[in-house]
Amino acid sequence: xxxxxLIDKEDVISYHFLQVSKEESRVTREKLERAxxxxxxxxxxxxxxFLTDQGPKLIETTVWSVDEQxxxxxxxVEIPISxxxxxxxx
Length: 90
Fold this sequence. Notes:
Layout: E1 5-6, H1 29-42, E2 46-52, E3 55-61, E4 65-66, E5 70-73, E6 77-80, E7 84-88
Parallel strand pairs: 1-3
Antiparallel strand pairs: 2-3, 2-7, 4-5, 5-6
């Protein structure tokens, strides 16, 4: 997969999400929970790479909530977990 392009988190709503293959995804429930805890308890940001119809994208943001299908970031924007390639912390 190509290197993800860094975009502003406010621009996420401009993209159409694509599903990542299981072989390419490095997201686990543990990573999702860690990102949620980092955001809620420590106001820390997570680097999230995800796949769109315009290629892989990357944002730095706080994860506000996680459910079975989506993560929620600022302004009520949802990102499908099935589109997330990976999550990292600094």
